[in-house]
Every structure is written in structure tokens, then in C-alpha cells.
From TrEMBL:
E.C. number(s) listed in UniProt: 5.6.2.4
The protein's name: DNA 3'-5' helicase
Lineage: Bacteria, Bacillati, Actinomycetota, Actinomycetes, Micrococcales
The entry's keywords: ATP-binding, Helicase, Hydrolase, Isomerase, Nucleotide-binding
GO BP annotations listed: recombinational repair
Keyword hit for Metal-binding: no
InterPro entries per UniProt: DExx_box_DNA_helicase_dom_sf, DNA_helicase_UvrD-like_C, DNA_helicase_UvrD/REP, P-loop_NTPase, UvrD-like_ATP-bd
Gene3D superfamilies (UniProt xref): 1.10.10.160, P-loop containing nucleotide triphosphate hydrolases, PCRA, domain 4
PROSITE patterns in UniProt: UVRD_HELICASE_ATP_BIND, UVRD_HELICASE_CTER
CC per GO annotation: cytosol
Length: 674
């Protein structure tokens, strides 16, 4: 039965999508292949709920990235005309959601004034515990942080996590455990939280049925996008809320690419066991790509021993065959991609036609270089996160010491920006701050005392930031101007102009944020990339370069999947472990399914052939050719090999005797004067 207004909500949807939008079950799992309309369906479901009279603040969409959250919010708001951020539907990441509750309810959760650490800060705290440049059982500080996070997200012991992450090493887990305990203690002393702590705090408190009932009572329905990438720790947030609200989860097991961070796509397979009475709905018609693109994608999955049982059908029908271009070097490959886009541009195609998918930031460099060289506007998804870039961290350190005076890492960073202040002086000043605080002085008095021997502008600047802290953009502006002279010097040979523009972006982003810590947390937990902020330069018409891991939800008419070479897909690092190899297959699958009309796979020959011993539950198996495209049927692609026409090599100099060296008359011709 169509309710009032349902026609516009359901307009254009196919029968399966309508069914998924209108489902009356309390809990639902929409299992959908790439391009079958997951995002479309989530947006329609939200609109449907609003039409049913559910008020926006009683709906929550949990997404994987800030970009996805913004997309959902804007599509829901644009279509139903809900105005203003305050009134809109909440869409955020798991971390953002957990932090909002923890931050807004200190009496329930008990954490007030704690600072959130990003990956680099955590590694620094760990380095402080391990000792600079030292290792524990062969593991470096950042590796220990990584193993610890994996253990917590997958809910396994530290010893198991060490075995999974470092299968080839013999590691005494006890020694690592002692370091981890010291690390946790140091965090507690300094009032630091890391990303996992935030989820843990929320999960722990949700074990109390009264807290679960209270949190659940906020929402009529919680929608979870990219369900295949949730991990066991995130499940601990969903599970206790099941009796108190409705869940509407959407995912695709073939697009699970975050296993290395603990995601467990089996959670989709066991959804009905975990959420009794849940209904599972399927979407199978792909609206994005032509059948030839899907044939290649389907073939890739068919090669997997995991048996995905997924065959995407193209509603759009037939189109051009995917192309496979091979080059001698990554430079040739990048040059060709740039040239191909410029050729299309000459034919009137906008830059925004193109998406270039790369494996990692590093592998995107050759392509970025060509884009810069040819003045092609682009945005890099997956590049440097704004709040993690060095200059922004510098400015934030001033804000952080104001918001948490015990923040040792921020103090060290801030103090060592000053001329002639090294680690030792900085550590002494920080100790003075702590002593003064211990003696009962206020943060401001402690600063005044501890910063005495340093340039006066620092204490004055920090006071000014504190005075402005109710207006966070103003506080950011004051921190930036206080530090501009030292930063302009520090980065004098390193792109200072662009960096200083970033600082203005940070100031703008901070507007109307409730507090310094809320602002920092928001952008740490749901990051933006520096290059996303410079989009204005191209009026929105730009190429997107994206790591595959940041490409969720993206689509473009043309997609270049670069570097699909042997040794890269699967990457040599994954060999020996069937789960990792299969995750790599899914990474390639996500990449291939981004193209609407033209899929261009490129690769280089500069590789070492990869053969691998793979451990399976049935024992060890020898994989002849681990390269995913090794056995690619010719009929699926149009192949082209580009051996660059090279200039002939310089010939050797003529030998002696063939007009060899002789004395040359250097005199001037005196003509008539002779
Ligand atoms: N019923 C429909 N009619 C026409 N186009 C549709 C329909 N459903 C989805 N689409 C279009 O198909 C494309 C893919 O949809 P969407 O992005 O929602 O898929 P998705 O399942 O979220 O994709 P992925 O998981 O691969 O990122 C979009 O361009 C969308 O507008």
C-alpha cells in the first residue's frame, strides 16, 4: 500500500528496491552487489521514514566515511527540503557516533577532558614507552600499536593477534604484553584516548541494560551502510541495541576490503543468527555499468575459492569491452593515462568524467606527477588527511595544550617549534607544567610559570587562544597567526604557500564547532583529505584519483584502474595467506565495478612473476600463478600493448684513427690584416 508521498520516494526504483524500502520488519539486511543501488535504497528508506512521520533526529545513518555521510545527508535533505544541518538526519561514522555519546554524557560514560590520539600520536606515546629507536621482540612501536588495535577490533588476545599479523616471527607475547600495559598506563596518566578506546568505552557501557535502553530510545531506526566492513568491536555497539531500536543494514560481502583492520564479512552471513527475526533482502540488478564491465568483474569473483555466488546483471545492457593496456614502466603508464584524458578533454569531455584508481598513496605518485605537469585539476581521495598533515598538527598542538594541559605530545610538538628548543628543554618545560598543575595552579598560571624562560608571545598567544576557545574558528585563527612566523620559516622550502592555505581551510572548518576538542575529534575520527579542500580551484570539474580503499560509493563514466600488474594484484605481501589474497581480489573487484561506460585497466611489465604457497584449511596448496589476470580469457577484454617508441640509443664515439683527436687551430682569422 502506497502511503501519501510514497510515489516520489519510490519513483524510479525497481521492485526489489521498493520492497527493501518499504519492508515492515523490525530488522533488515539488504544484501546487494556493486552498483545495485545500496546508497539509493538507504536514501529512499530514510525519506520513506521521514514521510511516515519519523522525526529526523530519531534516525541515524552510520557510514564508513565522512564523504558518504555528507552524500546521504545532502541527498535526503535536498529531496525532502529539510533545511539546515541541525534539522537533518544524523549521518556519521561508528567512531563519530560513539564519541558524540561519550562526549555529551560524561556522567554516563565518565570521560571528560580526554584527548583523542591519531595513529602518529599513538606511535609516539608507544615510542616513549619502548624507547626511541628500540624494538620489543623485533617489533617497532608502530607495529605494536597496530597489533594492539587489531586485537581489540577483532576481540582476540594479543598473543593471537601477534600470530596473525607476524606469522613468520617467533615473538614472546608476554614481553609485548608488558609494553602494552605500560602504554595503557601512560595513556591513562595523560588522559589520552585512541580510536579503539572510544568504541570500547561505548561498548562497555552498553553492556548495562539501562544504558542500552537509554541509547536505543534515541532512535527509531539505525541504518548501517557498508555492513561487510564492520568488525567484531563495532558489533558490540549494535548487539545490545537490537532489542531497543530497529536496524537496517546494507552490505556486499564481495566488497569487504578492510579485513586487515579487523573487519569480518562473515557478520553478514551470520546476520540472521545474530539478529533473530531479521529479514534478508537482495538487490541484484546493476544500474551502473555495462554488461561487458560486469562480465569481467563476475569472472574475477568466479575465480575465487570462496564461492561468492554473485552474478551482476547490467540493466543498461551492452557496451564497450573493458580495455587492458600494458606498458613498460609506471611512467609510461601514467603518461598515457594523462594523454588519454587530455585527448577526451579536447573532444569536449569534462575532467569529471574520469576516476583513476590506485593501490596506495605511493603508487599514485607517478600519476599525480603527470597530472600536475599537465595542469589537469584533480582531487586525491586517500592522500594526506588534513588534520594529520605536519603544519596542521603544529597549529593544533597550540589548541590541544589549551584544551588538555596534560597533553604531553602536543606540548612537545609546540615547544620544539620554537627556535633553539630541543626535546630536552621541551621535556623540562612540560615537567614544569605538570609540577605547577600538581601544586594546584590553574592551567593559565601553570603556563605562565613554566614558560617563563621562553619568548613572551607563546604564553600570551596561548592565553589568547584560551580566551577565544568558545569560538573555535577564532581560536584556530589565533593559533595560526601566533605560529605563522615560525611555520613560515620551518616550511620555507616546503610549499609554505599551500600549507598556509590549508590553515585557512582549518579555520573555516572550525566555525560553529562547540569546542576545541569536539572540533579536533570530529576531523580525526572522520577525516577529510587535504586535496578535497582545494576542489574550489577547479569549480568542481576535476579528475578524481582515489585509492581503491577510499573509492567506496564512487562511480564515473570512465574508470582507469592503474597498476593492475602481477606482483600488485595480489600484492606480494598477501601471499601465503588465502584470506589476504581473497581480500586483494575484492579490492580489485571494487575497482573494476566503479566504471559506468569505459573500464580501462592498465599495468606494467616491470614485475617479478609471483608464485605462492598458500595455506588453506585443507593444507598447503601451490598456486601456479597468483596474478589475478594471469588466466584472463581473451574474449573479456580488448588488449593493447604499448611499447614506447624510444629514440635510438646514442652511438659510441668514433674511435681513434677515424678522424681521432687532433690539435685545433684556435687562432682568429685576421683576414686582410695578415
Ligand atoms: N532503480 C534505479 N534506476 C536507475 N538508476 C539506478 C537505480 N538504482 C540505482 N541506480 C543508479 O545506479 C548507480 C549505482 O547506485 P548506488 O551508488 O546506489 O549503488 P551501490 O550499490 O551503493 O554501489 P556500490 O556498492 O558499488 O558503491 C547510481 O548511479 C544510481 O543512481
Amino acid at each position: 500500500m502506497a502511503e501519501a508521498g510514497a510515489d516520489t520516494v519510490l519513483e524510479g526504483l525497481n521492485a526489489a528496491q521498493r520492497e527493501a524500502v518499504l519492508t515492515g520488519s523490525s530488522h533488515n539486511l539488504v544484501l546487494a552487489g556493486a552498483g545495485t543501488g545500496k546508497t539509493t535504497t538507504i536514501v529512499a528508506r530514510l525519506r520513506h521514514q521521514l514521510r511516515q512521520g519519523v522525526s529526523p533526529e530519531r534516525l541515524l545513518a552510520i557510514t564508513f566515511t565522512r564523504r558518504a555521510a555528507a552524500e546521504i545527508r545532502s541527498r535526503v535533505q535536498a529531496e525532502i527540503g529539510v533545511g539546515g544541518a541541525q534539522e537533518g538526519v544524523a549521518a556519521m561514522t561508528f567512531h563519530g557516533w560513539a564519541m558524540r555519546h561519550v562526549r555529551n554524557n560524561p556522567d554516563v560514560f565518565g570521560y571528560e577532558g580526554w584527548s583523542v590520539l591519531d595513529a602518529e600520536d599513538q606511535a609516539q606515546v608507544m615510542r616513549g614507552v619502548v624507547g626511541r629507536g628500540k624494538r620489543v621482540e623485533g617489533l617497532k612501536a608502530d607495529q605494536i600499536v597496530d597489533v594492539l588495535s587489531f586485537a581489540r577490533n577483532t576481540r582476540i588476545t594479543l598473543a593471537e593477534a601477534i600470530r596473525v599479523k607476524h606469522p613468520d616471527q617467533t615473538i614472546d607475547a608476554k614481553a609485548v604484553g608488558a609494553i602494552v600495559r605500560a602504554f595503557e598506563e601512560r595513556k591513562r596518566e595523560r588522559q589520552y584516548l585512541n580510536y579503539d578506546d572510544i568504541l570500547m568505552i561505548f561498548a562497555e557501557r552498553l553492556k548495562d541494560p539501562a544504558v542500552a535502553a537509554w541509547v536505543g530510545s534515541h532512535y527509531e531506526e539505525i541504518l548501517v551502510d557498508e555492513m561487510q566492513d564492520t568488525n567484531p568491536l563495532q558489533w558490540l555497539l549494535i548487539d545490545p541495541l537490537v532489542p531497543h531500536t530497529r536496524f537496517y543494514c546494507v552490505g556486499d560481502d564481495a566488497q569487504s576490503i578492510y579485513g586487515f583492520r579487523g573487519a569480518d564479512f562473515a557478520s553478514i552471513h551470520s546476520f540472521r543468527d545474530r539478529v533473530p527475526g531479521a529479514r534478508v533482502l537482495k538487490l541484484e540488478d546493476n544500474y551502473r555499468s555495462t554488461q561487458e564491465i560486469l562480465d569481467l568483474s563476475n569472472w574475477l569473483l568466479d575465480q575465487s575459492p570462496l564461492g561468492y555466488d554473485k552474478h551482476l546483471r547490467a540493466v543498461r545492457g551492452s557496451g564497450a569491452k573493458p580495455e587492458l593496456h600494458s606498458f613498460e614502466t609506471p611512467q609510461d603508464e601514467a603518461g598515457w593515462i594523462a594523454a588519454e584524458m587530455m585527448r577526451a578533454r579536447d573532444d569536449g569531455q569534462p575532467w569529471a568524467t574520469h576516476l583513476i584508481l590506485v593501490r596506495s598513496n605511493y603508487s599514485g605518485r607517478a600519476i599525480e606527477a603527470r597530472l600536475v605537469e599537465n595542469d589537469i585539476p584533480y582531487v586525491f581521495y586517500g592522500g594526506v588527511k588534513l588534520l594529520e598533515s605536519a603544519h596542521v598538527r603544529d597549529v593544533l598542538s597550540a589548541l590541544r595544550v589549551v584544551s588538555n594541559p596534560d597533553d604531553e605530545i602536543a606540548w612537545m610538538r609546540l615547544l620544539t617549534l620554537l627556535p633553539r628548543v630541543g626535546d630536552r628543554t621541551a621535556a623540562r618545560v612540560f615537567d614544569d607544567v605538570l609540577d605547577a598543575r600538581g601544586a594546584g595552579l590553574s592551567a593559565r598560571e601553570a603556563r605562565e610559570r613554566a614558560l617563563k624562560g621562553l619568548p613572551g608571545w607563546l604564553a600570551a598567544g596561548l592565553d589568547a587562544i584560551e580566551e577565544a576557545s568558545a569560538r573555535v574558528d577564532d581560536a584556530v585563527g589565533r593559533a595560526a597567526s601566533m605560529l605563522t612566523p615560525v611555520l613560515a620559516h620551518k616550511y620555507r622550502n616546503d610549499n609554505w604557500d599551500a600549507r598556509s592555505r590549508d590553515l585557512s581551510h582549518v579555520e573555516r572548518l572550525a566555525a560553529s564547532r562547540p569546542s576545541i576538542s569536539a572540533f579536533i575529534e570530529e576531523y580525526l575520527l572522520s577525516p577529510v583529505f587535504t586535496s578535497e579542500l582545494s576542489q574550489d580551484r577547479s569549480d568542481g570539474d576535476h579528475v578524481i584519483v582515489s585509492t581503491v580503499h577510499s573509492a567506496k560509493g564512487l562511480e564515473r563514466d570512465w574508470a582507469f584502474c592503474a597498476g593492475v600488474s602481477a606482483g600488485a594484484y595480489p600484492s606480494a605481501r598477501s601471499l601465503g595467506d588465502v584470506d589476504s589474497i581473497e581480500e586483494e581480489r575484492r579490492v580489485l573487484y571494487v575497482a573494476l565495478t566503479r566504471a559506468r561506460d569505459r573500464l580501462i585497466v592498465t599495468r606494467t611489465f616491470a614485475h617479478t612473476p609471483v608464485r605462492a604457497w598458500v595455506s588453506t584449511s585443507a593444507g598447503l596448496g601451490f598456486v601456479e600463478d597468483a596474478y589475478f589476470l594471469g588466466a584472463l580469457p581473451e574474449a573479456l577484454v580488448r588488449e593493447e600493448v604499448h611499447t614506447a617508441a624510444r629514440l635510438p640509443k646514442p652511438v659510441s664515439p668514433p674511435g681513434a684513427g677515424v678522424g681521432g683527436p687532433r690539435e685545433i687551430d684556435l687562432g682568429v682569422d685576421l683576414g686582410d690584416l695578415e
